[in-house]
Design a protein that fits this description.
5 strands; 35% helix; alpha+beta; 197 residues; DNA polymerase, domain 1
């Protein structure tokens, strides 16, 4: 009988070709492989990486050095964002944040990632800033909310921005399949442009 570990999860064709070209044909082969090694494959994007991470997590496995997954046993995680992910984002929703985080790191290095605020009653949350905060990330029981500080001023061709505020608008995602890197690029470019004004 064939296990899900003996195949690959359903990912985009370029990412699938990248894995096969590198000799990876099963999910089992990807367990404990460095995330950076997979990310370096031509055709492997943040969404495919998130799908792979989620498939591995279903079997209690992970990628090595995975910023969205859990820390290695016995090793303290010095990254406060990784600590936040581990403590506050439900495992099913971590790939959503992981895909966003990867997109920002790879394509918007001018944005600084940090934690904002926090009290005993209300934990701090990850924020991304240029001159000021442009995006705040908040986990919920149903998914992950991305709050764009100047979202009300954005063009919204994709129609994903929500909220009644006069300044901030949100994108709420429940599954990794809803994460569209091109749409987030569209919003992030506008966030940066409005921050520079």
């Amino acid at each position: 009988m064939t296990s899900e570990l003996d195949g690959l999860p359903k990912i985009a064709a370029p990412a699938n070709r990248a894995l096969h070209g590198a000799g990876y044909t099963t999910l089992r082969q990807l367990a404990n492989l460095p995330r950076a090694e997979l990310a370096a494959l031509h055709g492997m994007g943040p969404k495919a990486l998130g799908i792979i991470q989620a498939a591995l997590a279903e079997h209690g496995l992970d990628l090595a050095g995975d910023p969205t997954g859990s820390a290695s046993e016995g090793a303290a995680v010095a990254d406060p964002i990784a600590n936040f992910v581990e403590a506050k984002i439900l495992p099913a929703h971590r790939p959503i944040f992981g895909a966003f985080r990867e997109l920002v790191r790879n394509e918007f290095p001018e944005l600084t990632e940090t934690m904002r605020g926090g009290t005993d009653a209300y934990p701090g949350v990850p924020v991304y800033r240029l001159n000021r905060i442009v995006v705040t990330v908040s986990p919920t029981q149903k998914g992950v909310t991305f709050s764009f500080t100047d979202g009300a001023a954005f063009d919204d061709e994709p129609g994903m921005l929500e909220g009644a505020g006069h300044k901030t608008k949100n994108v709420r995602l429940r599954t990794l399949e809803q994460f569209d890197a091109e749409i987030f690029r569209y919003y992030l470019r506008q966030a940066i442009a409005h921050d520079a004004d």
